[in-house]
Amino acid sequence: MTQSIPTLGQVIVAKRTFTQENFNLFAELSHDDNPIHVDPAFAATTRFGGTVAHGMMLYGMILGVLSENFPGARQLEQDLVFPKPTYANLEMTIRLEVTELQADSKQARIATTITRPDGENSCEGQMLIQWK
């Protein structure tokens, strides 16, 4: 496996559509079966109006895109916030942007977002990675 080294300003974009089945499977694996994630009838009565993705499922999607593009990179830090919900059956845009590069320590800071079709971010953050 060839290591890919980040470049300053590099942007990676991936599209993903999450389904209710994805929410259910994540709940089964994580044992987080909060009805806001897995019970459409209950979730419809909440301020969200429907089931929403687990925050850590979204984090996993970000890590997947990172791993696809920078195999072997190690994550040293991660900050995340979830300003808007992620609903099932909407095409979401996962975006990673290299905002800082420290070549001497082989580290890069990467801004991370997951954006809904309406342009609102459902996940925002940044990570620090290191490569060999």
Instruction: Give the CATH superfamily of the domain at 11-18 and 54-130.
Output: Hotdog Thioesterase
Give the CATH class of the domain at 11-18 and 54-130.
Alpha Beta
Strand order of the main beta sheet, please?
Answer: 1-3-4-5-2
What is the CATH-assigned architecture of the domain at 11-18 and 54-130? Roll
Which structural category do the helix and sheet elements fall into?
alpha+beta
Describe the protein in words.
- Helix content is 26%, strand content 35%.
- With 132 residues, the chain is of the alpha+beta class.
- Strands 1-3-4-5-2 form a five-stranded antiparallel sheet, with helices on one face.
- The chain is elongated and about 55 Å long.
Looking at this protein, list some descriptive labels:
alpha+beta, Thiol Ester Dehydrase, Chain A, 26% helix, five-stranded antiparallel sheet, single chain
Draw up the topology in text.
Layout: E1 11-17, H1 20-30, H2 35-38, H3 40-43, H4 55-69, E2 74-81, E3 91-102, E4 107-115, E5 121-130
Antiparallel strand pairs: 1-3, 2-5, 3-4, 4-5
Short overview:
This protein has helices at 20-30, 35-38, 40-43, 55-69; strands at 11-17, 74-81, 91-102, 107-115, 121-130.
